[in-house]
Amino acid sequence: MYKFNRNHQFHLSDFNQPIGLKMNPKNRWVVKAASIPWFDIEQRYAGLFPSNTGVPAKPLQTALGSLIIQKQYGYSDRELVEQITENPYYQYFIGLPGYQDKAPFVPSLLVEFRKRLTEDILAEINEMIIEYNHPDDPGTGSSNGSDGNSENGDNQGTLILDATCAPQQISYPQDVNLLNEAREKLESIIDTICYEYNCSKPRMYRENARKDYLALAKCRKRSAKRIRQAIKKQLQYVKRDISYVDRFLESEGISLSAKDLARLNVIRELFAQQEYMYKNNVHSVKDRIVSISQPYIRPIVRGKAKSPVEFGAKLDMSIDEHGMARLERLSFDAYNEADVLIGTIENYLKRTGHYPERVLVDQIYRNRVNRAFCKSHGIRISGPALGRPRKLTNEERKQSYTDNTDRIEVERGFSLAKRCFGLGLIRTKLDTTTRSSIALSLIAMNLDKMAGGLFLPERFLLLVMYVLSKNRLKNGSEHILFFEMAY
């Protein structure tokens, strides 16, 4: 059940401030609250509650505002509730009618907020926020939008696209560790069955299995032969425990809970993969499980010097001419980024009514299919042409340098989202909440840009680069002017 517009927030003057508290109307959270079309989003949010019975849900502003605050600072669920209770600006941002010294909701409710605000809904909210702050550009679903025909106008604007990985907070997936964890969980399942159904416990050799695991885990120098021997022993222990569980399930009247049954299926698949890699002496397998508690996570090969392989979701993010970020594709399985470009350009056409004038992408996107598509629609794609390199003119070299410089904006967006808005380490446990968490990171970053929320070190660095490039730091007056601009 949802009561529409139950606690709608109008203006800072309507916020019930305690005696002696004078809130600053230029505070960043007041500015951010004014940058979000709460009323329009609430209409979309109210449609998620078709029933008119039950306990009324929390307002949209409370749910979305709380998650944005959490993304901004990386609070845990408990710490976020404490911070909201202590900060009147946070309470104003989440739509409370006035300051109160009690918690507005329990921490566990944040999980429901993340489940309810799915990836698709957050993508719509992100588009509504961008359209609300840039009314000159026709947004999705507007009357000025195109139905797929680019004859409405000439190509305009710039589209930047790139891919990255959002790492998940899991332990590094070593084969021995995964098998040892699987063995421990199987032993826990067997203990539960024996306790609930009063069965005698089979011999599982727990102490021997633990000693065999620690013999390798505490070893400083691990040879390939020693690792292979440890994997063989753990495979034998896991195989024996799975046979015990199957024997219990074949008995009449014995069944597992839904949680234990799902975990058992994951362990079966993990055992099959590990056994296949051991017998064939290989180190890779299709859809490899790297976490028993989060089996949807897959290894993503990125080829970076710091981390060649990352474990998390792979995503494509686009940046428009206003610097606003959008999530174009999100998947836990590895995919070819080149397949995303045409769909991203079509989405740009639907939003604005015209194709972009130029598309700035790296080498992997510039295949023959994408080049032919861009050429047929009058779109200039960055980078050299395919085939033997030819000598460029001065104008072409200048254009190439400009494109490479402007394309850095998407790299800066990845850096900002990972350092300041939680994209660098996802801590949620479910696949649905992980998708929501990634989408929220982009929304929080866009709001920070709209509110002029560049952190001072970044503003300082940008101004230093600008002033030094113009050779303006020549006397003291220039220094004074520079620091006034920085602040």
Explain what this protein looks like in three dimensions:
Residues 138-148 and 454-487 have low confidence and may be disordered. This protein has four domains: 12-117, no CATH class; 147-169 and 312-452, Nucleotidyltransferase, domain 5 (2-Layer Sandwich), CATH 3.30.420; 175-280, no CATH class; 454-487, no CATH class. Strands 1, 2, 3, 4, 5 and 6 form a six-stranded mixed sheet that branches. It is built from 17 helices and six strands. Helix content is 51%, strand content 7%. The chain is globular and about 75 Å long. Helix 8 packs parallel to helix 10, helix 8 (175-197) runs antiparallel to helix 11 (258-280) and helix 16 (456-470) packs antiparallel against helix 17 (476-486). The protein has helices spanning 28-34, 38-46, 60-73, 77-86, 88-93, 109-116, 119-133, 175-197, 206-217, 224-250, 258-280, 341-352, 368-376, 394-420, 431-450, 456-470, 476-486; strands spanning 158-167, 299-301, 309-319, 325-331, 358-360, 380-381. It is of the alpha/beta class and 487 residues long.
Task: Give the overall form.
Answer: globular
Percent in strands: 5-15%
Mean pLDDT: 86
CATH class of the largest domain: Alpha Beta
The main β sheet shows up as: 6 strands, mixed
List keywords for this structure.
487 residues; alpha/beta; Nucleotidyltransferase, domain 5; six-stranded mixed beta sheet; 17 helices; 7% strand; disordered C terminus
